[in-house]
């Protein structure tokens, strides 16, 4: 069975139910049968509306799924929703897996903000919800919280039983060859490149912070407590915990930070302040095991002035007249861009569905033609130039242009394969009752 990958519209469907479908062309003119409980899993209901909404959304997203009969589509969706119920039940029964209300609210809040921005603001979102489903903003947020909680339980269960597998290039290639026709068709897409230039503090300001960091090391040399100094002086959130950030695997943290940390023995601290993009660090090692290290740090941030910010913006703006072609842009990105992940690829970010663009830069690139370059855009501690390399109303994924996305799909597929085996065993202890026949639904789609 091919994987059911969820692009943004389907993810919204799973969060907001019929609301997401209200913005889908598949929904236009369709009629939903009278709703009711179609399946129960140990008494937990799956509504007919859940099945139909999921089915219609997947028909729009997956060409291969759309070719199945209506009965075949429903059965595939039911199997997946039942597996989902079994998976969540297992996760919530496992006392070692904990999901806090605080973490749920934080992640759901981020998602809510993004959905509202995509609809043009909270008032427009509320109006759309009322018109499409009669759902209030409060109900929408509550449903989103529930979905986020379930998602976090799934992620914790996955990490416990499966981990985070990284597919090989051969696995990615084999997956693509086997499932290329089942992958979502990307609509209204843009291929982007960018050039990143960090806002740097003046040499004078940088030196002042370094002197403060050196003073902290002198206090440590005199025997003062690292933990207490972190609580008093660190600009990082970990300061409240005495600077402790726990065990981390190699490759997780800033490369410069890691190189310095792994060179120390347990109990040692850096004899000189370490400069990273975040500021100056004083690092202490409290434990090592295999390929992991436990560190604490005191961070003194180097915050650029308004003059530093203006200087960075003016520098990037001065480059625009020289970037006349895609080759010019790529060459400049390789030369000066400070995004390590894309620099060697000439700043290539790949393809994005237009509606998934980050609001931080969407309005700046949305109206650009092919070959157009944005004005400098500040995101966090950097300015960016974005270039629209290509636009496409509709396109299929390719291994050459979408390797990162196909790699992610392959990873999801590997996880699904392993989880499916576990769910199959867990499902033997679950009672499933299918009541779908009570609704007298058509076996075929209207067009068949």
Query: Which term fits the overall shape?
Result: globular
Strand order of the largest sheet: 8-3-10-9
Count of DSSP strands: 11
Helix/strand/pairing class, anyone? alpha+beta
Helix content: 40-55%
Distance N terminus to C terminus?
Answer: 22 Å
Write down the CATH class of the largest domain.
Answer: Mainly Alpha
User: At CATH's second level, what is the architecture of the largest domain?
Assistant: Orthogonal Bundle
Overall tally of structural domains: 3
CATH topology of the largest domain: Triger factor/SurA peptide-binding fold
* Main sheet: strands, sense, barrel: 4 strands, antiparallel
How much of the polypeptide forms β-strand, as a percent range? 15-25%
**Mean pLDDT rating:** 87
- The low-pLDDT segments are 1-32
Count of separate DSSP helical elements? 17
Radius of gyration: 26 Å
The ordered H/E elements are HHEEHHHHHHHEHHEHEEEHHHEHEEHE
Q: What's the topology here?
A:
Blueprint: H1 8-16, H2 18-21, E1 37-41, E2 44-47, H3 48-61, H4 63-66, H5 70-93, H6 101-118, H7 122-132, H8 137-161, H9 169-179, E3 186-198, H10 203-221, H11 226-233, E4 244-249, H12 255-262, E5 274-276, E6 279-289, E7 292-301, H13 306-319, H14 326-336, H15 340-343, E8 348-353, H16 359-365, E9 377-379, E10 382-395, H17 403-427, E11 432-434
Antiparallel strand pairs: 1-2, 1-11, 3-8, 3-10, 4-7, 5-6, 6-7, 9-10
């Amino acid at each position: 069975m091919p994987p059911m990958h969820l692009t943004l519209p389907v993810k919204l469907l799973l969060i907001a139910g019929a609301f997401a479908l209200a913005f889908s062309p598949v929904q236009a003119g369709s009629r939903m049968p009278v709703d009711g409980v179609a399946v129960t899993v140990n008494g937990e209901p799956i509504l007919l509306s859940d099945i139909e909404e999921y089915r219609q959304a997947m028909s729009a997203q997956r060409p291969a799924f759309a070719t199945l009969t209506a009965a075949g589509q429903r059965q595939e969706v039911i199997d997946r929703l039942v597996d989902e119920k079994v998976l969540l039940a297992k996760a919530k029964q496992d006392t070692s897996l904990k999901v806090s209300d605080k973490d749920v609210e934080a992640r759901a809040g981020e998602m809510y903000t993004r959905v509202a921005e995509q609809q043009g603001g909270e008032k427009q979102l509320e109006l759309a919800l009322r018109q499409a489903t009669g759902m209030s903003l409060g109900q929408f947020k509550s449903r989103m919280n529930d979905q986020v909680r379930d998602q976090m339980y799934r992620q914790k269960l996955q990490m416990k039983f499966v981990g985070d597998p990284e597919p090989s290039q051969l696995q990615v290639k084999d997956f693509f060859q086997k499932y290329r026709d089942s992958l979502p068709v990307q609509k209204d897409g843009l291929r982007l490149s960018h050039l990143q230039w960090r806002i740097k503090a003046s040499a004078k300001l940088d030196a002042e912070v370094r002197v403060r960091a050196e003073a902290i090391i002198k206090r440590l040399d005199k025997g003062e407590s690292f933990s207490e100094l972190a609580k008093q002086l660190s600009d990082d959130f970990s300061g409240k915990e005495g600077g402790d950030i726990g065990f981390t695997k190699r490759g997780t943290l800033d490369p410069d930070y890691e190189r310095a940390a792994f060179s120390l023995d347990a109990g040692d601290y850096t004899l000189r302040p370490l400069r990273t993009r975040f500021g100056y660090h004083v690092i202490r090692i409290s434990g090592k095991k295999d390929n992991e290290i436990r560190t604490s740090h005191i961070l003194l941030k180097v915050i650029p002035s308004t003059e530093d910010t203006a200087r960075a913006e003016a520098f990037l703006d001065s480059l625009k007249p020289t970037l006349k072609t895609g080759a010019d842009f790529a060459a400049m990105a390789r030369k000066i861009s400070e995004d390590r992940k894309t620099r060697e690829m000439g700043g290539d970010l790949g393809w994005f569905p237009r509606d998934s663009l980050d609001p931080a830069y969407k309005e700046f690139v949305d109206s650009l033609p092919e070959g157009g370059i944005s004005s400098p855009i500040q995101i966090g501690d950097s300015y960016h130039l974005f270039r629209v390399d290509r636009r496409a109303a509709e396109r299929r994924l390719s291994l050459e242009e979408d390797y990162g996305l196909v790699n992610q799909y392959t990873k999801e597929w590997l996880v699904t394969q392993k989880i499916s085996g576990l769910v199959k065993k867990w499902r033997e202890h679950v009672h499933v009752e299918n009541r779908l026949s009570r609704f007298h639904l058509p076996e075929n789609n209207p067009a068949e």
